[in-house]
Amino acid sequence: MYLIYWKGKVGSAIAELCTYKWIPYEIYDDSDVIESFEKYEVIIPSPGIPGTHRIYQSGKILAELDFAYQFLPKNFDIVSITGTDGKSTTSWIVYNILQKEFFGKKSVYLSGNFDIPFSATILEILKKWEKKGIIVVEISSFMTHVIQSFQSTYSIFTNLKSDHLNWHIDLQEYLDAKMNLIRHTTKKSILNHQLFEFVKDKNLELVFPENIRIFQDLESKRDWTNGNDIMISGRKKYSLSETNFSGFHNAMNLLSVGILASEMKICSKRMKAYFSEINGLPHRLEKIWEKNGIIFIEDSKSTSSQSLEAALGSYGDTKNLLLIVWGSDKWDSFFHLSDIFKNRVKAMVVIGATKEQFISIALEKNIPYISTDSLKDAVDWLYEQWSSWDVLMISPGCASFGLFKDYLDRANQFREAIKKLP
Known about the structure:
By secondary structure, this protein is of the alpha/beta class. It is 34% helix and 23% strand. The strands form four sheets. It has a six-stranded parallel sheet with strand order 5-6-4-7-8-9, sandwiched between helices. It has a six-stranded mixed sheet with strand order 13-14-18-15-16-17, with helices on both faces. It has a three-stranded parallel sheet with strand order 2-1-3, with helices on one face. Strand 11 and strand 12 (235-239) form a beta hairpin. It starts with a strand and ends with a helix.
């Protein structure tokens, strides 16, 4: 008998895969009373359950990635993307690139933290009786900290910053969870050089794997970018200005994808065409409307100080941002962004558990602000502050837990509030 612990989207996907494979199971969560785990052979937790939960004391934990991976046909490749920021955008780009490259030859799936549980993807493959293909998996540290048998063909590590310290014991555990994926990569892991700088600065321990390739934002002999030119193996292959993306962070994302394509032997001329055709990720710095000279940007996938910093660096360099920040507290710090707020933010609305940090920044930098629990009131007040070519943006910098069902619910409520503007 298997125990699936938690009744959300991932738990439901695991249950459906168990049913398909004739595996008996029960599904419970913290709302249920379970006195003993003795009758269960295996316990599969939802990735969101931290390692401090009592189920981990059972010694019967099986990661969702490990459980589903055992049923994957052997001729499938997996491309995994992890990191503190940029993993959703990078996953989206990789998925679109591979769809174009292998159209009519093999199926390409997008899975994992991207909102489609890995178990659901495996079940779809099994039901279709597919024998070969590629799965692009966005992977969080929650998903990798206990994996044992899962294997990724290629992996990309976008960057590393302090994050999820309300879930992990400390930064070392957070790093170890990420590196667990790299250790389970069979061909090549593509790592941002910033990772090693961060590890050194924070005095963390890191064992360097052998099958890695480094990319960086400084000139080097091999793989680097200056923010526009993207150099692969010492040669300029692509330009950010020839794509639909902007910002240094996206130049780094495209650089990592370009290296992946090189490792997978995809022609750079075709890659250049693919890059020019791909649009940005929905809900990530997405321009959704322009009205009366004001631009509306929805960045609901912004869930960390790093993604908020990227948003503050987008859409110009003047004091033209009308900003909504809010969310649950992941123990992230935003005070290092104070000077950027001063230079870019014209007015702001703060909501949620992290609002005190943002109020402190607003007071210190003399930024007009209000605190409210209503998204409609937030949009209405900011709209009253606008002048020509201002940018009204929601870039929360925090998770949506406790306030919304998920980042999609947050995005949809923001869009509805905009529709009701006069």
